[in-house]
Amino acid sequence: MSDRKSIVSDPETVRARAMETLFERLESLCEGAIAIDRAGRVVYVNEKYLHSLRLNHVSEAIGRPIEEIIPNSLMRRVAETGEPILLDIMELGGEPLVVTRMPIEDENRNVIGAIGFVLSDHIDNLKPLIARMAQLESDLRLAKRQLSQARTARFTFDDYVGTTSGIARAKELAGRAARQSVTVLLSGETGTGKELLAQAIHNASARADKPFVSVNVAAIPDTLIESEFFGVASGAYTGADRKGRDGKFRTADGGTLFLDEIGEMPLQLQVKLLRVLQEREIEPVGSDKVTKVDVRVIAATNVDLQKRVNEGTFRADLYYRLNVLSIELPPLRDCAGDLPEICARLLDDIIHSGDYLNARLTPSGLAALARYDWPGNVRELRNILERALILSDSGRLTGDDFARILPVGAEARIAAPATAPAGAVVPYAEAEAEFERRTLECALAAANGQISEAAKMLRISRATFYKKLAKFGLAVPDSSSV
Ligand SMILES: Nc1ncnc2c1ncn2[C@@H]1O[C@H](COP(=O)(O)OP(=O)(O)O)[C@@H](O)[C@H]1O
Ligand SMILES: [Mg+2]
After folding, report:
1. What are the structural domains of the chain?
2. Which residues contact ligand 1 via a Cβ below 6 A?
């Protein structure tokens, strides 16, 4: 009894014992321990640590600067600042170690050195945590990139390559559009550069340092378009949207709003859009107040809006309002003279994106590209160039390289409209199966029977390709073993 009392009443002894016990415990539990003095020289290292440090004897470490033993050590920093680093992951010889580092103080609390422990040399237990951190970091990067892309325009007129008449005319009109704030209508097939030109107009305009907001009308469900465009007043809904929310017009205030696929806008929304264009005011959902906005609208369409007006699915008054300055973007097949320059720019771009070191288009390659009719225009051209590069070992793209890729798409697309109306009507599943079978055969033929290549062209896995072959009872070609 009295013994215990005397121990408890002697706090200094407890403290001293605690220090020693703690140190001994930590040292025995840990995978390694090392200490330095104020000058960063090793004063202590335990036997256990020697193996990881690739040393044979303690004496090999004592007295040497810590960085000679552990090149990326942070021990010196702890000894200099007196700030502990309680938990860290340090790499040693390519292995991650979980470590803790603490300053050592004298009786007067002056920092005289630092001690580090390796808590664990197998961080399996921490793996879920580390994986989650990596995931969060990558999500954050993606979100930041998307946010900055959604609000900024990166293209300029220099990016719209070409000098043939259609492109020159479009560029000239776009230059005019940039000098004013009028509403612009860009029409052209998919992949002809509508979004590119919209960004270029914005960047060359007085609004360049204000937001460029891009909205694809076809991608928003009809029921959400109104709130997406005009926002929601606070208190209009319960729950998450209770606080209200800005619409795209508000976000784009002062800048440019790009409305892609305007032809898909529901009729009742067309009235509201027309009113904004006329009055320059928006009325958020659930609000009885209108507010001013200053937004230049650039609309784009790949359908014939005049035809939609005639059919009654697009309002004539909105059409005229959008059509103040109308710019027609020519399809690639009408710009044959620009093909070399456009290809050169796209290949340059692809190289700069980092995946390929060199890429060169040979005359036979260019000739093959010129024979194709490019229903997907420059976007499709870019895809074809990238695909050819994936399959090429040298980066020198020849006619053969494209012959392997182009005919599959070309035949399918050119043949489809001619035969479809005349063909017999068959159940959907049958037609689909037939289409699938023909696609597999086409790809196999184009790839000279090589399964991996054919699968690559169709952007499906080898395994999927084999499964589909089996489904249709198609023979596996001999050369497929390559
Ligand atoms: N004349 C051109 N010169 C260079 N690149 C172009 C040209 N036209 C289109 N592109 C490129 O083609 C791709 C598709 O263009 P985009 O503006 O998205 O087409 P759209 O909006 O008409 O579908 C983009 O990568 C764009 O940079
Ligand atoms: Mg587009």
Report:
1. 31-120 (3.30.450.20), 152-330 (3.40.50.300), 335-481 (1.10.8.60)
2. 159-162, 167, 188, 190-196, 342, 345, 378-379, 382
